[in-house]
Write a structure and sequence with these properties.
The protein is mainly beta. Helix content is about 15%, strand content about 60%. The chain has 2 helices and 9 strands.
Length: about 200
């Protein structure tokens, strides 16, 4: 008798669940066929005695919903760290690492997943993304080939405005006496508009 009552209860619950309408909201963050341009702050940290805050300008075009081509320019306003200034003043020695002045990269940005979350009664639509870029680092001593890999989030604030946070690694190849390869961390936070 208990088995029969349990079976009927499960059957009634399943029937009720099937009767509820399924509502699927259309995707509001459409990238295919659109340009995304942004401007924001950047910081290049290589552990090489240079403090390198910067200004980043990015432009991406998405031929498909899943990915697009991107170009990024970063102007760096590098200065010696406090400890490097003390050593230079006391000994006259300067770091072997080149002073970063600018960065030009081009590559591909791939959407990994799309999502939305409710914040303060509003839905925030976002994309988790990965990117690979190649280009060059401009230093006080010339041009150094560079490559970058990053992970980030692209979040739509309203119909045209978005925020983008990228956390990247930058590998550059400079002419040095010891090692020519330099690995750095390159976070970029920017705001932009969809065109």
């Amino acid at each position: 008798m208990r088995v029969l009552a349990l079976s009927l209860t499960i059957l009634l619950c399943a029937t009720g669940a099937r009767a509820q309408a399924v509502r699927v909201e259309p995707r509001l963050f459409v990238k295919q066929g659109h340009f995304f341009t942004s401007i924001g702050g950047a910081w290049l940290e290589r552990g090489d005695y240079w403090r390198s805050p910067g200004l980043a300008l990015s432009a991406a075009y998405y031929p498909t919903e899943s990915g697009g081509a991107e170009a990024r320019l970063v102007w760096l306003f590098s200065s010696l760290s406090g400890s490097a200034q003390e050593i230079t003043a006391a000994t006259g020695f300067v770091p072997e690492a080149h002073k970063p002045e600018g960065l030009a990269l081009a590559g591909w940005r791939q959407s990994l997943t799309y999502g939305k979350v409710a914040l303060a009664g509003e839905a925030l639509h976002f994309d988790l993304q990965g990117a690979l870029h190649g280009g060059g680092l401009f230093t006080d001593r010339g041009f150094a080939p560079a490559a970058s890999a990053s992970a980030g989030i692209l979040a739509r604030l309203n119909r045209w405005v978005f925020l983008q946070l990228d956390l990247g690694l930058l590998l550059s190849f400079e002419q040095r006496q010891s090692s020519g390869a330099s690995l750095g961390f390159l976070p970029v936070l920017s705001a932009g508009a969809e065109l």
